[in-house]
Write a sequence for this structure.
């Protein structure tokens, strides 16, 4: 069996009386890109928040490198090497680009390697270096997404969880962001990707899980799901029609 | 008339900085915990009494007593956060924290009534009556010291927020606590640090106040409201605006006292408070300062 970095076994998550995740299981193999796809409100973001410790599961296990992390605080989880880039980027708009990056390396484990991490982020996103003294709120949408990813990289994560990185970006920028995700993955960063842009996500993903109303309804290789008649009809329908 | 006006202006600056540093404390606490810490004024009076105690019992100079009062304030700040507010701060419903603050206010107020009686106290030293007359404008030494203390402590807070990593985290948390948590920053630590700085600023204001005014246990709530007005003028959650708001409140109060018959001063402050809330709910210079 391949080396599973993150393994989720049968978790159930509630918001008050409402159940958001039903017996969800999935595996993220080290060094791969795993995509979670499905309609809005299907539970993808909830899953990421549960892994990050922002939301608690009521049952089931979340194993990271074989260790159950489901009871740990977000701080401990980030320290172990799991970083989430939340939906909508959630930068600190009145802080400078550099201050945002500095906070990305807040955890004690990441602090000694601050300079090397910064070098890496600047080489990935040269525009951030030029704008380092600028307030994050003044950046364009694409630059903000780069900063959000860069900030997450500052924590030296083993796995990075991206929530809707292409949301609200122009088609050209969407392409750039997906290229970047591919490049990051080539640098050995494992990626758990939540996307509404299913076509792009399945193209890039090694493995994908289809979510529907809080359950995993289908799983397979990204390329296989992309060819799957049912998936195309349900989620990429519009695009198929357009290309005809 | 012309001779009195500069004196009013000077009074303004000296007066307003006191509201200003109290408001900076309120702003830090509100920014992180989303709590209007109504007990701030009562804490200021408590520290004024502490200073009074060190002065009468130990003969300690009020300004020198800061060496003791500030560490005590730091302990109280940490103790209050971890002992009282920690659980409530994690709740969506911020009313729980607000009620705790009201509880602290009445508890501390009544404790002071028992310990120090309702009679007004003041710290009278050999320099209490000392007055300088640069350019013929009378300036009291103790008021000048209030300004000096306010400038030093506000400067220290600004440097802390700007230059240290935890200070940057406090500013970040005021913008987005969830995102701050996702950086691996413990939200309780950020809250505790901001809250403790707020209490330390209350201690500085308390010491400054004890040397300028006579005070009694009930004065705290009025001071908290004044600080709240200063905070609103500057824009809630805006630390720099809070200090300016304090100065502005001083301007409003002293010009009201100067131009409008007595008794109306307070009414003018509250009137301005309401007008600002109605027409500029984010403060008078909130927007412009955020851009700067």
């Amino acid at each position: 069996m391949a080396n599973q970095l993150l393994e989720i076994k049968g978790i159930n998550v509630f918001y008050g009386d409402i159940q958001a995740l039903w017996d969800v299981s999935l595996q993220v193999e080290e060094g791969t890109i795993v995509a979670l796809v499905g309609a809005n409100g299907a539970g993808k973001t909830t899953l990421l928040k549960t892994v990050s410790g922002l939301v608690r599961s009521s049952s089931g296990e979340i194993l990271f490198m074989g260790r159950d992390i489901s009871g740990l605080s977000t701080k401990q989880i980030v320290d172990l090497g799991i970083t989430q880039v939340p939906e909508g980027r959630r930068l600190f708009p009145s802080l400078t680009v550099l201050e945002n990056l500095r906070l990305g390396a807040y955890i004690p484990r990441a602090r000694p390697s601050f300079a090397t991490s910064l070098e890496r982020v600047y080489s990935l996103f040269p525009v951030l270096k030029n704008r380092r003294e600028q307030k994050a709120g003044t950046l364009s949408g694409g630059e903000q997404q780069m900063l959000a990813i860069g900030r997450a990289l500052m924590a030296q994560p083993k796995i990075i969880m991206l929530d809707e990185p292409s949301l609200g970006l122009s088609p050209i920028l969407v392409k750039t962001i997906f290229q970047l995700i591919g490049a990051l993955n080539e640098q050995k960063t494992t990626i758990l990707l939540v996307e509404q842009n299913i076509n792009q996500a399945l193209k890039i993903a090694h493995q994908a899980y289809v979510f529907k109303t809080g359950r995993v309804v289908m799983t397979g290789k990204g390329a296989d799901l992309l060819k799957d008649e049912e998936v195309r009809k349900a989620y990429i329908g519009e695009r198929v029609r357009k290309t005809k | 008339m012309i001779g009195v006006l500069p004196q009013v202006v000077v009074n303004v600056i000296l007066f307003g900085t006191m509201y200003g540093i109290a408001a900076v404390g309120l702003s830090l606490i509100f920014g992180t915990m989303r709590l209007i810490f109504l007990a701030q004024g009562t804490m200021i009076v408590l520290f004024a009494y502490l200073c009074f105690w060190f002065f009468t019992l130990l003969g300690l100079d009020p300004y020198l007593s800061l060496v003791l009062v500030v560490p005590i304030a730091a302990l109280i700040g940490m103790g209050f956060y971890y002992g009282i507010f920690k659980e409530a701060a994690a709740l969506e419903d911020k009313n729980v924290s607000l009620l705790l603050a009201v509880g602290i206010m009445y508890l501390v107020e009544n404790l002071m009534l028992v310990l120090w009686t309702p009679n007004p106290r003041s710290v009278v030293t050999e320099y209490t009556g000392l007055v300088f007359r640069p350019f013929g404008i009378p300036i009291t030494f103790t008021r000048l010291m209030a300004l000096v203390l306010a400038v030093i402590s506000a400067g220290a807070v600004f440097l802390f927020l700007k230059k240290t990593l935890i200070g940057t985290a406090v500013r970040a948390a005021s913008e987005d606590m969830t995102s701050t948590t996702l950086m691996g920053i413990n939200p309780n630590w950020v809250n505790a640090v901001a809250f403790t700085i707020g209490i330390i600023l209350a201690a500085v204001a308390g010491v400054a106040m004890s040397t300028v005014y006579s005070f009694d246990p009930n004065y705290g709530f009025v001071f908290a409201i004044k600080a709240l007005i200063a905070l609103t003028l500057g824009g809630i959650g805006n630390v720099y605006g809070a200090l300016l708001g304090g100065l502005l409140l001083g301007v409003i109060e002293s010009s009201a006292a100067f131009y409008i018959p007595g008794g109306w001063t307070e009414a003018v402050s509250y009137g301005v408070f309401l007008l600002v809330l109605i027409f500029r709910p984010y403060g008078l210079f909130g927007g412009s300062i955020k851009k700067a």
